[in-house]
Amino acid sequence: MSTKISHSGVIERIEKDKVQVRIVQTSACAACKVAGYCNASESKEKMIDVFCADSAVYKLGQQVVVSASGGVAARALLWGFGFPFVVLVAVLVVVLLLTSNEGLAALSALAALIPYYFVLWLMRDRMRERLRFWIES
Asked: How far apart are CA 95 and CA 1, in angstroms?
């Protein structure tokens, strides 16, 4: 996954070390000619925070291209969905084997995600360094 992921967007907000860019994320079929007649096509607006030292060179409303490496996308998916899935299944199986109570196992598995995502939230500054977006010139 060494490819680059890019989205065009518009600068919505500029702060000292952060530029906030609004992008429109579309599904693969949103550009299809019959997308208006199909329920599968969708598009969503997302706000991307790009941390940079030279935020003064950008202007509000400016069209830019926001990019990230494929490795960033893979890490984000792993931390956001891969590891939590492993935690969920592991706790589910362990509690089910120990208690034979399916309801307790399901609730325990879901409850185990609370500390995981809390730790992820605590580590957001470190993750920001590893999951970096940039604006292409």
From this structure: 36
* Cα separation, 123 vs 74, whole angstroms: 18
Residue type, 105: A
Q: Which two tokens stand for residue 118?
A: 């809390």
pTM for the full predicted model: 0.64
Strands laid side by side in the 63-69 sheet = 43-51, 18-26, 4-14, 63-69, 134-136
How many Å apart are CA 84 and CA 3, to the nearest integer?
A: 25
pLDDT tens for the chain, 137 residues: list them: 457 888 888 988 888 888 888 888 766 565 565 555 565 556 678 888 888 777 778 888 889 888 888 788 888 889 989 999 999 999 999 999 999 999 999 999 999 999 999 999 999 888 877 788 888 86
Token pair for residue 46?
A: 């997302």
The C-alpha atoms of residue 66 and residue 4 are separated, in whole angstroms, by: 10
100-116: b or e for each residue (b if 16 or more CB lie within 10 Å)? eeeeebeebbeebeeeb
Helix 102-122 to helix 83-99 angle, to the nearest 10 degrees?
A: 150
